[in-house]
Input
Amino acid sequence: MTGLGGQPVFIMSEDAQRQTGEDAQENNISACKTVAKAVRTTLGPKGMDKMMVDSIGDIVVTNDGVTILEEMDLEHPAAKMMVEVAQTQEEEVGDGTTTAVVLAGELLKQAEDLLDQEIHPTVITNGFRLAKDRATNVLDDLAEEVTINDQETLEKVAMTAMTGKSAEAARDYLAEIAVDAVRSVAEEDGNEYVVDRDMVKVEKSQGASAEDTELVKGVILDKEKVHSGMPSKVENAKIAVLDSPIEVRETETDAEINISDPSQMKNFVEQEEAQLKEMVNAIEESGANVVFCQKGIDDIAQHYLAKRGIFAIRRVSSSDVDKLAKATGANIVTSVDDIDSSDLGEAGAVGQRRIGGDAMTFVQDCPEAKSVSILIRGGTEHVVDEIERAMEDALGSVSSALRNGQIVGGGGATEVELARELRNHADSVGGREQLAINAFADALEVIPRTLSENAGFDPIDTLVELRNQHEDGDHWAGIDVTSGKSEALFEQGVVEPRQTKTQAVQSASEAAEMVLRIDDVIAASGFDSDGGDAGGPPAGGGMPGGMGGMGGMM
Output
């Protein structure tokens, strides 16, 4: 910047890097397209997996979009926005992360063509906003109803979410488990259902096979009993859940005790034992035969509990304490002295089992369990991890379907129908915004096109056939990735929650709009992909930290 007398005036540090105008837009769009391209090959039943190796050599093999993006060491600020798209999709719905990211990348690719035609970014973002609103309304009209009693339909939703992952071989069995788990914890709230996914606990243990995965109407704890003399299994369990220790209470003020006689020491120890015995007596008198304690249990108290045949576990996490209370109906007791029979929960059985070489405690057969657990099994650690991710997707999809009570067709059917509706809508919109709406429609078709490519079919032929089917009124026609033909997949059970599509469209559109509105990127001095000083302009004249040549993306 030139000041009076022609002298330059510097308002930023010499080390600061800046890109403006078209350069900034091209750089940001390129970064986002690269991220979308990285996960695009994982989409659909025939999608491939990615192997992620971190700095210490740990390996993750997955085709789960959000897992891939979280494992990638992204440095580019615009690329990080794509990760946020996936994370939002995961938090809100639990599935459809790859769809959301691929759609965001395609929207920016279409916007790039419009920018080349000298269409202003504000016009494009306005058009995208109109298209997003129209697509959301069309989804509301398209969606079919589903209720908590539609077991078969909900299982189809779960199977669709699992398709293409390592769990696919056992997806029928796993889908049934996912639906049973969600239905168990769903609570009616007026005309809709509320599902707290935190009340479905997922534990995993390698060994056996995916078919050995089991649902427990209760809680599985990765802990064992505190004393070998305690029973290994308790039938008709009466359960006390404590968040206070079974230990001698410490004084609240600093105190010093001087002992000058061995008998005083003996009395002191006996007094401590008497206090612990009173605590155990209070537990026994309440009728409890199982104790779950969030804090510690003194060794002497363990001995007394074992003598009375009471099963006890200590250091239970606060989240597990909440799940135990929900599953068994117990009240969380803050003082052992105040425990009463009305505070106890119930379970058909509480027992300790060895799973994969580790001891686990099963609290099962709870009469009205509002918290359940799923124990996932698989041949290797990587297989178990991928089955866990597939199960999380299934749980999220079923929860979403129940929460909104609506489902739509999969296999690209919904996207092609939305694209058709948007093209019709664009004709009624004046000005250059209709170009952006048509671009939005073209971007939506990236989903069926990618499904076709990943299955090894010609995407152009597939898309033409799909469009013709939809023009003829078959709005649930999608691509059958086995035959490559257009089929009414909705009737074949390829269905997804409406919210999966709604959230993907909204997140992708908003992310694209935000990127397009950026025309100036300023990187502070010292911003570097390695965390050190920038030291000078990066290779290729770009910004530090991989912002020029994308060198710091992964």
The chain is about 45% helix and 15% strand. The radius of gyration is 30 Å.
